[in-house]
């Protein structure tokens, strides 16, 4: 199977590499073209523009930073819309809001093409090991066609119905994740200030009812001030912002998520946006020092 792949950031690089390793023919494009080199060394071809990739491949996948990037790659000159049409599918796996997804879907449908949104739950390591959870919605026939690729990229694909539902599901999940990360950070500081060993806290948490891979994986690194990015904080803050907008549209009060969003914004203002989202821990430490 031949696929196009747009966006070779943390996620796109790992995902396109996985497709190559599993026998797919892959044509890649990235805004910063030099990031294609490593994929080429593993057998990928390169398209000079998104349009060139779509022209070559019947299915093109994208995973880009945010709504502005997702829209730009589709609507700008030499973008996806230039070449999409009958018999061609476009799958956007970026985390965006439902409105962005619907805008892209409508434009592609007007050209006779097929669209699926398919944001993913899971971070750098699940992307590398093909263990993502895929939250697809939109064109069911394109979903069925893409299942062999989804089976390589993830541990379970979900088909959630009309376009927008994948984006909404992803935003709900990441709203919970961002809120939990803030509570976790406060817990680590509370343990420390109460003269408990935070490593003991991690051990106890891991044996109880709220044990989870995020505490297990990130906790020890946070205690070493290691925020090497798996999921960049700027993207987590974008997800909180988009989830709060979804809450706004549906009149859902989310004071916990709103407070978590403020902490991520604070972290961005401290220049931590490109670090892992666990670096929000630094904002909690700051409060500790100022008291
Ligand atoms: N990292 C993670 O753990 C997860 C991330 N996600 C989501 O996946 C998406 C990608 O995340 P991730 O790979 O971590 O992000 P990165 O920041 O590592 O990569 C972002 C990608 O988007 C491209 N890009 C940014 N702006 C534009 C633009 N205006 N036009 C064209 N391309 C652009 C970048 O190109 P360039 O190289 O030129 O900058 C790069 O390829 C995000 O929506 C994120 O929320 C979802 C699940 C997990
Ligand atoms: O969006 C991030 C993730 O870990 O999932």
TrEMBL record:
Residues 2-159 form the 6-phosphogluconate dehydrogenase NADP-binding domain. The active site is at residue 170. The keyword Cell division does not apply. Gene3D superfamilies: N-(1-d-carboxylethyl)-l-norvaline Dehydrogenase, domain 2 (1.10.1040.10), NAD(P)-binding Rossmann-like Domain (3.40.50.720). Residues 164-282 form the 3-hydroxyisobutyrate dehydrogenase-like NAD-binding domain. The keyword Disulfide bond does not apply. PROSITE patterns: 3_HYDROXYISOBUT_DH. Keywords: NAD, NADP, Oxidoreductase, Stress response. InterPro entries: 3-OH-isobutyrate_DH-rel_CS, 6-PGluconate_DH-like_C_sf, 6PGD_dom2, 6PGDH_NADP-bd, HIBADH-like_NADP-bd, HIBADH-related, HIBADH-related_NP60_sf, NAD(P)-bd_dom_sf. Pfam families: NAD_binding_11, NAD_binding_2. One of its GO terms (cellular component) is cytosol. Belongs to the HIBADH-related family. NP60 subfamily. This is 6-phosphogluconate dehydrogenase NADP-binding domain-containing protein. It comes from Gossypium tomentosum (Hawaiian cotton).
